[in-house]
Amino acid sequence: MRSLYLVAGTTMAGVSSVFALLAEIHNEYDIAERDLGWIAGSAFVGALVTQLWLSRYADRGYGGLLMRAGVAASAIGLLWFGLADQLWQFVVARLILGAGVGVIVPASRRYIIVNAGDDQGRQLGAFYGAYLAGFVFGPPLAGALTVAFNVKTPFIIFGALTAATYASVHRLVIPAAENVLNNGKRVLRRLIRVREMVAALLVVVSFRYSIGVFEPLWAPHMDNLGASTMVISLSLTGFALPMLIIARWAGSLSDRYNPRITSLLSAFATVPLMASYGWITAVPVLFIAAMPHGIMEAIQSPGSQAAVSDAAPKDDAAAAQGLGEAMGSAASMIGALSAAPLYSWLGAGPAFLIGAVTMAVLLTLSWLLDPPSASRQQVDKTRHASE
After folding, report:
1. How many CA atoms lie within 13 A of 382 on its CB side?
2. Is the pLDDT of residue 161 over 50?
3. Relative to the CA of 212, which of 95, 218, 257, 344 has its CA 20 to 30 Å away?
4. What is the rounded CA–CA span in Å between residue 271 and residue 180?
5. Are 365 and 241 in contact (CB under 8 A)?
6. Cα–Cα distance for residue pair 221/138, rounded to 1 Å
7. pTM (predicted TM-score)
8. Reduced to 3 DSSP states, what percent helix, strand and coil does the chain have, rounded to the nearest 5?
9. Chain segment 286-343, per-residue pLDDT in tens
10. Is 1.20.1250.20 the CATH number for 2-170+186-386?
11. How far apart are CA 287 and CA 285, in angstroms?
């Protein structure tokens, strides 16, 4: 488990550096603001492809191989990002980085789901906490390295550190399902026909769509408000630090209550916060607004993962998580590619507001498909009966 935490934290430190330094890349390489969405969106394209194509193989005994391939791809993507100086190079490097993360996450979650038992939510929360640790410490380190050296330095360093984590997973074995139900693409078709699965996926889609909107807008918005590179980096730490502090406790809420309730209610709570960002013109106020958003996302993320897990047979655990990640990646891609042009054409206020309205629609559809009325114990009984 510790090796999974190490890989997640180190990789996310590199990924979050892209968030923090997009404005610096825009200024350093004269890349138009409307084109920043291509850099952000390409990561989600890479993740989408690997999640749909490869995640099911973690259920078939190839989880360790997928982890190693994911670490290698992530390291290559970060190193290339550090050496890039043209838009197409940043796009391709980010695509490779996204593909690497796209195979690491489903394989890691399969390992957790098949080993955690009744402690599933808390363990998923702990994994998410490790992921968040990278998000907390990556941006300020990236900002400091950029100020001390240049914008290339943090990506090269984080790429080298990610490559070094290969040693922690080179012998990792993730057990195959005892009764492999996967038959080519049929597993995804079978999962998507389950109403509870679609409802759970809509929460994931809403969450990941908001990330897609957030990535290309946050740094340019703060940059336009006069924030320095270091301040922008620290703002992301302020967003993620509360998430890290409560991650394990937040995950345990899904063990205690219905994950449908924890994920849906916390997701709804982020909608007005997302809507407000574009209208806030004071950088300190943005700091404050981002903190409760981070807390709600800390509850939402393991809750939505547990809801996806509850809606699928355990033998399809990685395939279900991969499907959730793939749907989320597609939503993130749409959010990133649409938000940057909207920001350029309409400004920050309308761009963030459109994102918030879209989130509200997706969450309402999820609620209508599967109202969260059952207790966690009832959910478990229904799942065991279906298996």
Report:
1. 13
2. yes
3. 257
4. 39
5. no
6. 20
7. 0.70
8. 85, 0, 15
9. 888 888 888 888 888 878 878 888 887 766 766 777 788 778 878 888 888 888 889 9
10. yes
11. 5
